[in-house]
Amino acid sequence: QGKFTLLRDTRTDGSFLVHHFLSFYLRAGCKVCFVALLQSFSHYNIVAQKLGVSLTAAKERGQLVFLEGLKSCLDLLFGEEKQQSGQPSPLQFISESASDLKALFDFVRTSLTPAGSDSWKGPVLLVDDLSVLLSLGATPVAVLDFIHYCRVAVCYQLKGNIVVLVHSNEDSEDEENELIVNSLCHHSDLILWVEGLATGFCKDVHGQIKIIRRVSLELTAEQDLVQIYQYKIQDKNVTFFARGLSAAVL
Asked: What range does the record give for the signal peptide (predicted)?
């Protein structure tokens, strides 16, 4: 509880980690607020069904609060957004001059604040993916402020967890995105960094994952624990193995 996990991908797609955490927390009985900026609800639902979880059922029983970013953006841009219970759209900043993410934070806080009848084990905020907010016009400072306030509300006040995906490319000229990535790395309790193979595409090894446990955050003068594995994505699961020990190689 109270942990901030950063999912970072470079030269590959790390969305399989998002699907894992979404199904994992729903099966664990946690209340999940999913800010989905990259794909539609049906996309996440189809993948979740393969993993044995129904997002539709989770929404109906109030366990999952789903913000479909693609639909909200279109509704805002074409003036079809209907205010629910007098509240502004969570992505209201798109149609305003100031890139203020306060409405999005209020949506997260309201979604995860437990009601009297709630019996969920703990709140979880899941964001896929944070880089999209920059593309929609938010400034890096606004995005970092949003994450900071979410950490205070979810991790410290509600004793929940936050999982955020960001795309990164060390050779990129997108300085704003790299600023976001580097800042989040300094604040994360756990970093799962998925990278494509430096040697290019391989049928039996899809990439490598670097697991960084931020022991240094606990001010114990110890170095961060780093583990590196390679992986292969299959239809319903992912196989991990030590570097160079793929079944195809052996």
From this structure: none
Number of Cα atoms under 13 Å in the Cβ half of residue 135 = 11
Q: What is the pLDDT of residues 205-218, one digit of tens each?
A: 999 999 999 887 77
The count of other CB atoms within 10 Å of the CB of residue 234 is 9
Element (H, E) at 66: strand 64-68
Please give the CATH superfamily to which domain 3-77+86-190 belongs: P-loop containing nucleotide triphosphate hydrolases (3.40.50.300)
Distance between CA atoms of residues 118 and 4, nearest Å: 23
| pLDDT tens per residue across span 9-63 | 999 999 999 999 999 999 999 999 999 999 999 999 999 999 999 999 999 999 9
Closest by CA position to 124, among listed 191, 13, 24, 55: 24
Q: Round to whole Å and give the CA distance between 200 and 198.
A: 6
Contact between 219 and 229 (Cβ < 8 Å): no
- pTM for the structure as a whole: 0.90
Residues 31, 122 contacting (CB under 8 angstroms) = yes
Q: How many helices (H) and strands (E) does the chain have?
A: 8, 9
For residue 52, what is the DSSP state?
Answer: T
Q: Do 81 and 94 touch, CB atoms closer than 8 A?
A: no
